Amino acid sequence: MHAERGESSIDLVRAARQGDLGSLGILLKIHYGGMYAVAYGILGNSADAEDVCQDAAITAMSRLGDLRDPTAVSAWLKAIVRNNCRMRLRTRPPLPVGLPDGSAGTSFIDDPALIVERHATRDWIWDGLMRLTPTVREAAILRYFTQITSYQEIAQVCGVPVGTVRSRLSEARRRLAGALPGTVAERHDDITALTAERREEAIAVLSSVPSATPEASLSGRWSPEVEITWPTGDRLIGFSSLFAVFASDYADGVRYRLTNVVAGPGLTIWENQFVNPPEDPDHCPPAITWLLKEAEGRIQSVRLFYAPRPAPACDPEHPR
Question: Which of 36-45, 142-151, 186-195 has the lowest mean pLDDT?
């Protein structure tokens, strides 16, 4: 209807920011050609250009509140595309957040989970994610809402080949970009309460040793036969094995700092940093990601992924 009435991009931006999210879908269609031209001009490959533009479209859906000047919408969208292209050319797949060099005249927090929490579109985006198949949803959530963004890292966390991750993310982008504009008028679940609940659960588990949290208090949510896959590939049964590791780390002076919780039906992701003791700064890797899968309301499996350790600094007097 907006297009037939001849409304400008400025009118559409203003309408979308006032809650008319259907205007955003029209806005993206209007500017998609220009976005694609920028991506193709940088990457020279139509498939990569489509991927980058679809990532940018999803970003724009969750970031509209960051666009302070409606007249800058074209530059804003193209800036997202250019940023993603640059990251792809650096061999790291693009994380669809952030704009380069403050080119849109605003400041951002490059944490997609926090961004979505700030805006009314949060539940809309999450509802779209929940409509994906579980395996596709899992890859998309890791890609867009955690620090696990490269295809290789997602493949390790999910336990699948890199090619499978690539195809799942392609399907996620295609389905989200096509489906979200058509679901803006529907009623969406509020994910905030679930995220807060899962955050409390993470805190309880990660602080289990110093607070002496009894394992029985977790039995309602954790299956006694939960399968835990460690980053080494080793598998253990039962969450008591986690407490043994916590106790060992805690005795060595290691602490945990929870940095992110992503929650949805059947899936929860925790990200936490290790705080190593000063006398042993390399005791644990920098961080760990937990992928918790549920069935019938109980956690049935956990996969763990260590963030890679930073490469040692090169000694210019003794190059490798």
Answer: 186-195
